[in-house]
Each structure stands twice: as structure tokens, then as C-alpha cells.
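Why run this: before we spend reagent on co-expression, it is cheaper to look at a predicted model of the complex and decide which construct boundaries make sense. The entries below are exactly what would go into the expression plan.
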Amino acid sequence: MTTGTVWGLGIGPGDPELITVKALRLLQAAPVVAYPAPLGGDSFARTIVGQWLGRGQAEIVIEVPMEIAPEPAQAAYDRASLQIARELDQGRDVAVLCQGDPFFYGSFMYLFGRLAGQYRVEIVPGVSSLGAAAAALQAPLAARNDVLAVLPGPLPEAELARRLEDVDAAAIIKLGRHFGKVRRVLDRLGLADRARYVERATLGQQRLLPLELVDPGQVPYFSMILVHRRGVAWR
Amino acid sequence: MTTGTVWGLGIGPGDPELITVKALRLLQAAPVVAYPAPLGGDSFARTIVGQWLGRGQAEIVIEVPMEIAPEPAQAAYDRASLQIARELDQGRDVAVLCQGDPFFYGSFMYLFGRLAGQYRVEIVPGVSSLGAAAAALQAPLAARNDVLAVLPGPLPEAELARRLEDVDAAAIIKLGRHFGKVRRVLDRLGLADRARYVERATLGQQRLLPLELVDPGQVPYFSMILVHRRGVAWR
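The model came back. C-alpha cells follow.
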């Protein structure tokens, strides 16, 4: 029997219509659909594609603990890859839902690392949060020979400052509790008025704000600051 | 009469199925479709969506001279925005085709800059060449707290070297005739075996190569090198 294929499907940043025609076709054809969810919580990825799923599709929930320590999460991916492998061994394809783009800071790489050696794995790229944030803010990310950096919010303050000083444009991702630090850096560099904050881009609860209107205590993980040294054509 | 809306539609990197459900819906509903094309040549963007277009849709070809000098291109965007504005003034929406993502190094920003002040402009993000290249190479772009840089190939050799030394991962875009220089830099930094070359990702003519197998005289503009300092799980 031929073993099944793992499809790592980029499903986009949140708006269900931002899935590609290709990912939608493969999603609906897959006998098994797997997706991450916080322990005991709802899966955001499952919510995005809920309207596209059929009754006959089996589902594998990858319950990922949200603690900071990486150990429990790694055990969860170990378990999930065994569960997925059992389906593949039965000849069934498994579609793995990946918010945004599978290989842009996505957790899919943990399953990919465990399965790609023994099984056929195919990746369908998706709309990333980067493009979604720029579209929502009506702010071009980068053009011509701009250098663009993607900087995770957890980086140390001095490193963020050094890097922001040295690029034309940047996306600061994974803000959450790091917002206050990032804002201090942007203020100090005189870049605050060339930066904008976007939260839950493309979703109904999307919020676009100048930095001074953001409450640092209410910043979710799925938020981003875009900044461009030359300024941007903000609405 | 209400004026029309400009829809900047990300149509993805090349595979027609990598358009989003949203962009496809808006594309098919638009009475007028505009797209760039080289002077006297075929439009790649038009080719990508050809199968989705209907007979009743008017088309505006934005003929962009391919010279290096920016002046003639700017005149072309001036003309195109006037042409688009005439449609908008008649109450007709205009869908502008944007390869990849509209705001990720896209020429759409030139139209956006000319039209956004006077007309309603909405952007639909698309799958960028970045995610497409990573998917094709089966190589995660970045994860966890990685710093990722997007570096245009035309940057000076010393600047490329300095920046590549200082990041976890990079995408070097717009390679074309700059491939030889980029390869020298990667060789010198000892990063050549952690880099891979991808040409025309997601198209039938897609090519994935280690750097030493690339003919520097045959590198198209639509090619990219991905590199990750820690190495990547290459197939």
C-alpha cells in the first residue's frame, strides 16, 4: 500500500476567504485534518477553515501546552506526529492546518522535522501575517532596494534598537507583553510616528492604531508593528 | 454617482491556484482589470489569472518600460493612474493584478501612491514569493526568535556581507545579474552550503539548485536565495 502524504496547508492570517484555491481544494480532499489547539481550548486554525470542512473528515487535535518551557510542546509534537504517521501508514493523506504561511515562524516546522524523513510532505504556501498587516494598514512593507527585517518582540531591547537603526523597514512580530519595550525603543530612535500597530489583521476584531493609543497591558501575541524609515503613505 | 474602488489584488507567485478565494471573487466581479506588462511583451500577471477572467471584463495594460532609469516607468504609472481614474469616475471598480503580495516589493505601490488620496483603495494580501520559495525548497524561512532579513541582490557586496553575518536567516531577492556577487559573499562567509537557489517558484519551470550548479549567466530576476545560519532540513 502507498503511504499517505502530509499536506502542510497555509490557510492565511484569519479571514477564511484568504485561503488559496489550492489549499482549499487539498483541504476538502483530505480524509484527515490535523491542527494545533491550546490545551483544552479552541483551535484558531480550525475556526478559520470551519466553514470549508465536511462531515466525513477525521480530525486530529494537536494539543499544545502554552507554557514558555519548550519541553511539553515538543512532547505534544512527538505524540501528534505518531498519530499522523498512523494515518499515513494506512494510506490516508493528512492535511495539517497552518495559520498564515507554514514556514514563516510557523509551528508546522516541528511536525515537518519529525515526518519529512519518512513520508512525503508537501507545503502549500499561504498569505502571511506580514502581507495581511501591510494590507490592513495600507502601508507598503518594502520596495525597490529596501532592506526589510522581521524582528521578534522577545529580542533584547538593545538588540532591537541596534537592528531597527540599521534597516529601511521592519516588522516587529510576537508583540504581546513585549509591546512596552518595543515602544520605548521606537520612541528613543525617533521612529514612533513612522510605526503603526495592527492587531488581529483581517479578522472582525482587527484594530489599527498609532503606538500612543495602544494599551500595553492588552496586546495579544497576534499583533505586529510595521515601521518604515522613510515613512509611509498612511491613510 | 459613487466613484469606483481600486482593488489591489495579490494573485500569488505564479501557480494560478495560489490566488486566494477572496482575490478570485473580487477579480471575477470587477468590470475592469488592470495589470503591468513590459513594453510590447506579455503580462506575467495576466497569464497567471487568464483562466479566471471573463469575456465581459475590460482590461487596462500598464506598459512599463524595463529600462533601469526610473523616469519612464514613473510616466507609465502616471498614465495608468489617469486611465484607472477615468473608470473610477464612471463608478466602475478596477482590480489591479499584483504578482505575489501587493505591498511586498510590488509595483502596486506606485499606483497606490497616485490614487489612494482621491479614491477608495483596498488591498487583498497574497502569497508572496518568500513563502513560495520556502515551500518549494522545503526549508523553513524562520522560527522562534530568528531574525529574518530580506536583502535585494543589487545591494553592494560589502553591505550584503555585513548584513548576512548579522542575521539568522535571509532571503536574497531580485538576483538576476547579481547572482555572482551574492555567491561570492556566501562563499566567503562559509554560508554557501546553508543556502539554496530557487527560480520561478510554483511554476512549471521551477528550478531548485545548490549554488554551485547555478549558471550565473542564466539567472532570471524572479529568483531567490534562501539561507539559514543554523542550516535547514533540506530534502
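The first helix of chain B runs from residue 21 to 29. The helical segments of chain B are 21-29, 44-49, 70-89, 108-115, 129-137, 157-164, 179-188. Bring this page to Monday's planning discussion.
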